[in-house]
Amino acid sequence: MSQEHSQKSGFETRAIHAGYDPDPTTGAVIPPIYATSTYKQDGVGGLRGGYEYSRSGNPTRTALEGNLAALEEGDRAFAFASGLAAEDTLLRSLTRPGDHLVIPDDAYGGTFRLIDKVGGPWGLEHSPAAVSDLDAVRAAIRPGKTKLVWIETPTNPLLNIGDIEALAAIAHQAGALLVVDNTFASPYLQQPLTLGADVVVHSTTKYCGGHSDVVGGALVVRGLEVADKVGFHQNAMGAVPGPFDAFLTHRGLKTLAVRMDRHCDNAEKVVDFLVGHPQVAEVIYPGLESHPGHEVASRQMKRYGGIVSFRVTGGEEHALDVCDRTEVFTLGESLGGVESLIEHPGRMTHASVAGTDLEVPPDLIRLSVGIETAEDLVADLERALEPGRG
Ligand code: P1T
Fold first, then answer.
1. Interatomic CA distance for residues 363 and 367, integer angstroms
2. Of 45, 74, 86, 296, which one has the fewest beta carbons inside 10 Å?
3. Which tens digit of pLDDT belongs to each residue from 116-162?
4. Is 334 touching ligand 1 by the criterion CB < 6 Å?
């Protein structure tokens, strides 16, 4: 699909067609898995289609990258072996030892560990700030030193909302770039680059892939200067996905819109059930009018997503017990697949932030609401929350 055409089409059309035209030789409608490490040259330097070596480029990956760029409305997209590989490549593309970053005070534990434990010894400094508090972000910026304002919105796992447009203005005024981890919203619900962000990060392991069968990451960028730096580092650092992983992620993206709508429908039903439940102390979901980020989320997101977090009344033991009791919700890390998952962030995905400013409440449970029959999901939670069981 031509770039011009793909930019004019609707999201669902882009999800299915952008990045790939049927193969000119065979007519294959779906990008083949190019399981090749190298390419025949027609005389030294005579590359066919620019392909030289599969770390630098592979047609299956090219199709995925074209698709992601079209969905996020970015200038270029780059695929990686994992979300953290994408983040590491971004950090080394856009920062130098001695630079400073503002990061969410409730980021994904692995992102914090990368920035703190790997970036720290390398010379990066960081300050946590609440993404929902513009003044706090402004105050955390060190003029001249802060190169990136890095946010998640919604954040993992507390689902705080950052105002992308306002944060982009704050970052740019300070000469920094705004990086938005868009993993929780997915490009279907939110397109940060259209709101002024400079770089979008994805763990494509989640909604983009959508079937819990592949680990991957992506960076989508606005502006050719940033694209050149990221492109150079993608090749120079080499943390690329193999062709089969690229194929699976691309296949997942084709159904992103329909999956996300069902994730949102089911999450809303789960929220309706949890709100007011006697064993539930607090339900956290940006779609609730009581959520402090509801108004901003309504402005910048199409819907509110498939992740629901909640706190139980009986402390950590109670939370661990509920996680242990569900049957349709599988106890496991990760999110964004078709199947529902339940987890205890404090002991699982966010164990790496224990004892830091980013520590999460011990009575918190995170649900990744899948696309099963909503009534079965609600019944499963009802059983798991029944008092006196276990
Ligand atoms: O796992 P990986 O593909 O490397 O992506 C890391 C990552 C980055 N950003 C966000 C917002 C994430 O949620 C993740 C991964 N998160 C989990 C595995 C999880 O269960 O929260």
1. 13
2. 45
3. 999 999 999 999 999 999 999 999 999 999 999 999 999 999 999 99
4. yes
Cα gap 340→329, rounded to integer Å: 5
Q: Name the domain boundary from 204, 232, 254.
A: 254
Q: Is the bond preceding 154 in cis, omega lying within 30 degrees of 0?
A: yes
CA distances (Å), origin 108, targets 25, 184, 220, 354: 44, 11, 19, 12
Mutate to test the pocket of ligand 1, among 206, 248, 249 (most ligand atoms within 8 A of CB): 206
Classified as helix, coil or strand, 370 is: coil
Residue 338: which domain range? 257-385
Sheet holding 280-284, edge to edge: 280-284, 307-312, 364-368, 341-343, 330-331
CA neighbor of 186 nearest in space, from 167, 168, 204, 211: 204
Q: Is 88 in the pocket of ligand 1 (CB under 6 A)?
A: no
Distances (CA, A) of 189 to 58, 111, 186: 29, 22, 6
Same domain? For 186 and 264 the reply is no
Q: Which residues of the chain have pLDDT under 70?
A: 1-7, 388-390
Domain membership of residue 390 (yes or no) is no
Q: Which residues contact 226 (CB under 8 A, 6 or more apart)?
A: 93, 94, 177, 198, 199
Q: Whose CA is nearest to atom 16 of ligand 1?
A: 334
Q: How many structural domains does the chain have?
A: 2
In the Cβ-directed half-sphere of 266, how many Cα atoms lie within 13 Å? 28
